[in-house]
Amino acid sequence: MCSDQFFGCSPYERGGLNQAADTRGHVAGLFGFYSLIDPGTIVNKYGPSLSDGFDELYLDRIPTHYQQSEVTNLELTHDLNDDLTMIVKYTYSTRDFHQMNDNDGSISTVPLLGVGASLGLPPVEANVCFGGDIQFCEMANSDRTYDFSDVETENKQAEINIVSDFDGSFNYTAGYYWYDDTTDNEYRVQTMGTQLIGDFGAHPYAPVLFGLTGLDYSNKGGFAFYSQLLQLMAVIPSVQQVQAGLITGAQAAAVLQAYGGIVAGINAMPDMTVPVDLRGTLSDQHVRTKSQALYGEMYFDLNEDTMLTIGARYDDFLVDSSNFNDLVGRQYVARGGNAYANPRDIPGMLQKRTVTDTSSSYKVALQHYLSEDVMVYGSYTTATKAGGVNAGSSSSTYDPEETGVLDLGLKGIFLDGAMLLNMNIFRNDNKGMLLAAIVDDASINYNLDAEITGFEGLMSFFPSETVQIQFSWLMIDNEITSDTSIINYLDPVGGQLVAYLGAVDPNGTGAITGAAFSNGINLFKSGGFNCLAPQFAPAAGLPCPVAQGVAQSLQGNQLPNTAELEYSLSLTKVFPGDNGETSARLSYRFRDESNSSAFEMERMKIPANKYFDMLVKFTPNDGDWYVGVYGKNLADDRQLQFLRTASNLQGGQLYGSFSDPRTWGLQFGFDF
Questions:
Q1: 212 near 333, Cβ under 8 Å?
Q2: Dist CA 145 CA 130 (whole Å)
Q3: What are the structural domain ranges in the chain?
C-alpha cells in the first residue's frame, strides 16, 4: 500500500498497481518542501493510481535505453611440439551504457501550490532540467521523479594456457590469467524539487522575489541557500504588513530585524549554482579491479573406465575504489565546487578505499564409466570471489566470498537408447556469501554464510519413434546459517506501526516525522532517511547520531528468490509426411512460491507460477528451412514473477515483473 504518510509505501502489505509512494515519506517530499513548491508543510503530491491494469501505464516521460558494446578477441594457437600446445588469448572490450527511467512509475496530478500561495501567487510551473551524461529539460507543473544510470567500462583480459596431449595415462593443463577492469558507475535520482534547489534562477519565484524586495538571487542555488530562502519567504507577508502600517512598534521592529538578518545571511553566501547532474541523490563510483592467477589441472587415467582430475588456482586481486557522493549538491557548494572543472577534483569530495587479498582454490573430481552408456562422477570444488568496496556515502568494504561445492552425478543412455538421463545432487557451503540491499542512496553488499542443497536433472524419453517426453527439474533446500544481523531499511525496527506521531521538527513542517511501534520503539524519518532519534537532518549534513534501526537476524531464513521446486514437462508428437514432418509440442512449466526478501517480508512473497506453452513446427525433407506457430501462456494468467524494492529514500516502492499475456506468434528460419 503506497499511501503511507510515514514510510511512503507500507512495509507490511502490497498495494495496487501503478501507484507511486506517498511523498511525505519520500525524499521527493523533503526536497519539494525546501524548493518552495509545497504550501508550508510537506504534502503528498501523488493521488490514487491512474491505472490499475497491466496494459496501460501513465508516465511523465518515456524511459530511454542506450548501450554500445565493443569486443575484440585475439587468439593464437601454437604447437610447441607433438605433445604440447600453447594457447594465447587476449580480449579487449568497452561498454557505454545510459538509461533514464520514470522512477515513480506514475504521473502526479496534484498542483504545486508553493509557499507563495499565501501571497496570492499561482501554482508553481517551471522549465526544469534533469539528467547525467544525457540531459533534457521540460515544463513541469507537478512533481516527478526520474533516475539515471550511466556506466562506462573498459575491460582487458589475457590468458596463456599450455595443454598436453601425451599418449600415456597422464595429461595436464596449466596457465596464467590476467584481468584489468575500469568501471565508472553513476546512479542519480532527481525530482522537481532537487532540480529547482540547484538553481534559483530557474524558479518562477526568482522574478517574484525581485519584484517584492529588489533582491536578485537568480545566481544562487543549493540547499543551504534554499533553507534560508524558505525562512525569507515566510517572513515577507509580515514585512508587507509592516509596510502597509498593519504592524507597528516593537513588533514591526522585530519583523524587520528578522528580515534583515536573513537577507544578510543570504547575501553573504557565494553566487553559485549546482550543475544539473549533481542535483538530487548521486552515487558515482570509479572502480579499478586488477587480478592475476596461476592455475592448473592434472588428469590421471586410473584405468580404461576411471579418470581422476586434480586442480588448483592461486589468485591475487586488488580493488581500488573512489566514491563521489552528494545530496542536492550540498557538498559541492560547501567546498566551493564552482572553482573546479571536474567535481571529482574538489578537495575532500572523494572517499577512497583499496581492498587487496590473495586466495587459493582447489578441485578434485573422479568419473567412472559403469558401462559404455552410463557414467557416474563426483567432484569437490572450492572458489573465491574477491571482496570489494560498496557504493554510496558509506564506502564500506565487504569481504571475499568463499564457496565449496560437492557434486555427485550420473549421465547415461538407457532402454536401448530410448531414454537419456542426466542428474546430480549438489551441496554448496558458502562463507561470506554476498547479499545486496538498497540502503539510502546505494546498493550495499553484506557477507553471510549459507548452505544450499539441490537435486537437478534432465530426462528425455522416446516411448516410440514419433513421441518424445522431456522432463527437467530442480529441487533446492537452502538456509542462511550465520547469525548475521542487519537493518531492514524498509522496516527498520521490525515491529508493527501502532501510532503515527506526525511532524516532530520544531516548525511542524514534516521535515522530520515520527512513529511508535508495537515493540516499544520510536522511529523517526526525514526524506526517507531513518533514525532512532529525532535530532538529525540528512539534507543539511547532520547524520543520525544513533542507530538507523534495529538489526534483525537472518539466521534460518531462505536466500532471496529461491524456489524449493521448479520443473518442466513437455510432450512432443511428430507427424511424418510426404514433403516433410510436422511436430507438435505441449509444455507445462512450474515454479514454486518464493520470497524476494532475505527478511522474508510478507509483501515480498512471490506465488507459484504455472504456464502452458505450445509449438507446432513444419520442417521439409531437405531440412534447410522451417516454419512454426507458437503459443505462450495459453491460460492467459498474468502471474507475478519477480519483485524488487526502491530504497527507503524512495518510499520503499515495489517494482514487479509479471508474465506476458497469452501470446501467439509465427516463427521461421533458414539454414545456409
A1: no
A2: 10
A3: 497-549
Within 10 Å of residue 186's Cβ, how many Cβ atoms?
20
Q: What is the DSSP string of 393-438?
A: SS--EE--EEEEEEEEEEEEEEGGGTEEEEEEEEEEEEEEEEEEEE
Residue 427, φ and ψ in degrees, nearest 5: -140, 120
Q: How large a percentage of the chain has pLDDT more than 70?
A: 99
Hey, what's the torsion of the CAs at 516, 521, 522, 527, to 10 degrees?
A: -100
**35 is written with which cell numbers?**
524548493
CA atoms within 13 A on the CB side of 264: 6
3-state class of 628 per DSSP? strand
Q: What are the residues facing 91 on neighbouring strands?
A: 73, 157
How far is it, in rounded angstroms, from Cα 616 to Cα 582? 7
CA distance 646 to 650: 6
If you average pLDDT over residues 161-183, what whole number do you get?
Answer: 97
**Could you give the CA distance from residue 575 to residue 580 in angstroms, rounded to a whole number?**
9
Q: Is the whole-model pTM more than 0.85?
A: yes
Residue holding cell 526544469? Answer: 128
For cell 545510459, name the residue. Answer: 98
Complete DSSP assignment for 197-256: HH-GGGSTHHHHHHHHH----TT--SHHHHHHHHHHHHHHHHHHHHHTTSS-HHHHHHHH
Computed over every residue of the chain, the mean pLDDT equals 94
**SS3 (DSSP) at 266:** helix
Cβ atoms of 311 and 363 within 8 Å: the answer is yes
Q: Which three cell numbers stand for residue 221?
A: 542555488
* Integer Cα distance of 262 and 258 in angstroms: 6
pLDDT digits (tens, 9 = 90+) for 62-90: 999 999 999 999 999 999 999 999 999 99
CB atoms within 10 A of CB 457: 17
